[in-house]
């Protein structure tokens, strides 16, 4: 995979609205950032335990982003499970991928099951019962796009917009709270089908990366990892006659509804994707509940493969190593980043379980910036 080049690490400070930072149950927005994408002077982010997108704007102070705006997804999309009256019953989208392309902000949920985690102090019988509980959050089965419109120099989501004479509509892949067209297409897949019934953190099916290039949508899987090989799914979608519903389209010479690309990442799963020119950058980390290691790899030409690919280790370039803590600072999202708003020359990485030293004030947290 090559050797690691020198990378200059810096930070960007992300300042959230203190009131919106509090999620209840001792959870905070800044502590669990899962995705990031930069569009001009704006940084778009999400916490994987919410159903909203967060927008921060570059401030005059170098390296600081603030003026927090929050955009609930249910204002633009028909979620599989609408928000309940009691916020405690909210079913998260588990947003694990975010991308900007074609006038849209694209997003994807994890599509994964989750297993109950015993609490410290539970007696053995209760702990065993907790570990046996597997559930599905219906909003996790979301692959969607939302048009962006210009508002006083800042982009904002909209249900519909018009760009270059073309109507753009907010839309999501056809499905419900039990699954969607993607999970239905994968049900009988010999590699991935058996893992749909396994929780994500148990090496089950778990989407944690999104990149969009023209008509191509790349979905990076945290799991399963098969004998050290990670998986990227490639799909294409088009709106049906209702305009608010997307349908999978046949792709590739075999005209299947998806293509699989296997990458030898040394046993790591995919935590995020982003496009740089013709290449795909891959944030790779453990598929299981481990702290590290975490690396960024480059797949040369990965944004336009001619057919399904088997990518061996020596065909990938290791770009940099990402730091991780013990029980904290789990790298979850990355975006090509232009610190001064110009040409992107760095990667910005955000973290789940942010370490205390990253936090400042009531609602600020730092992200790492690595010069490319």
Automatic annotation (TrEMBL):
Domain spans labelled DUF3616: 33-368
InterPro entries listed in its UniProt record: DUF3616 (IPR022060)
Protein name according to UniProt: DUF3616 domain-containing protein
Organism: Azotobacter chroococcum
